[in-house]
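Worked problem 6 (solution included).
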Amino acid sequence: MTLIQASAGIDWISIAMFLLFVGITMGITYWAAKKTNTTSEFYTAGGGISGFQNGLALAGDYMSAASFLGIAGMVALHGYDGLIYSIGFLVGWPLIMFLIAEPLRNLGKYTFADVVASRLQQRPVRIAASVGSLTTILFYLIAQMVGAGGLIKNLFGLEYHTSIILVGAVMTAYVLFGGMLATTWVQIIKALLLLGGATIMVILTLAAFDFNPLTLFETASAQYGQKVLLPGKLVSNPWDAVSLGLALMLGTAGLPHILMRFYTVPDAQQARKSVLVATGFIGYFYILTFIIGFGAMVLVGQQVVEQSGDKGNMAALLLAAQVGGTAFKGFIAAVAFATILAVVAGLTLSGASTISHDVYVHVWKKGIPHEASEVRVARYATLSLGIISILLGLLFQGQNVAFMVGLAFSIAASANFPALLLSVIWKKFTTRAATLSIWAGTLLSLLFIIISPVIWVDILHFKTALFPLKNPAIVSIPASFLVAILVALLTKETEAEIKYEEQKEKLYLGA
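Solution. The predicted structure is:
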């Protein structure tokens, strides 16, 4: 592409709004950097975030490129079936509120491995938990980077690889200098922009249908047939549907970057409040994405969405241009890009804390903390993750981002959730059971993803897949639980049982 060709495709309004957002958030990062000196400040903003603020930040962290670009694209191309992602992403939140939030805040410090290892042997548990966490984070990063690459390629006139490098550089700066405080405020601002932008888009879309969603759905049915309002077009195999649903429902409770946010609030009450606030905002947002998807289907057209490439990821942007013109599309493009930057920053911070806190301090240094060196290792880890995320974004170009996040959820649900849940509720849970469960969940989910149609056929170009389902959760989650339960029944750890009784008071009362 020549410079003249590139400049012809540049959307200057989008670039201006994007630069404005980056400028504001870089100012926040500069402010946060002056307040970020200790490990607690770097990882958890010193625990000084309120429940409402953390709820907004949780929503900002969770409403990713998959939620906005991916789901809208799936609904636009496949109709009703795209809703399985919205529902799946949402229903994990009550599980977190009632089972995870309070124990996590009361027992942990910086990472979810703090909870799993609180009454077990530190080193083997933290090694296994780090592998599970980092695998989940890397798969999640793929989706965000692919979404960012497609977005800038289509709107800013830059090559895909250039846009991937740009995203990697900006998000690395957020985390490297501002830590959790900067990341939190970037996520809050992004959540408000995304909710506001999506609301305006839905209002403009429904204005064409007398503000009646039923009229929109009837028009979609008239244009594309009744099948767009019925399940089975995207996920035709019922086992695949069940597997995907399990991954999305249980995976939320195993996402390291989401679990980490519960350490930023001062107590368990604020942790529960933050989940309640986040659930409300996220539920509202997924209703909007469903209408946006059908709006793109009817007002833009499935053929145009398909021709835009990137597996439908540009549907929301095409609809924004249709209903609001170039200026509104520029605003939505900047919001979508802000969405990706905020989520990638949260993922990177979570990965950096896993490497520095779990691996460096508790495995390498055998639990002897040294604040200056721990923060330094976290910053080196941030740089490394930035480079890795860029490479992964280049490798997985063209995949639907919601689908890629579904795979990340599958790994989180298989590797992290069983050990986290059983360590909190089961007295007889042992170190060996925890480590083998995490290893089994991680390796099985990865193995089945590799030999599934997603990689075996689409990327490696074999004719048929060795594992027929696109999502492995229906096999890997029960396998992880089964390994955990069988090993715990076959092994006994008296010290872990004694510590379980001792930690009850802390678990329920925060004492």
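Discussion: Residues 1-8 have pLDDT under 50 and may be disordered.
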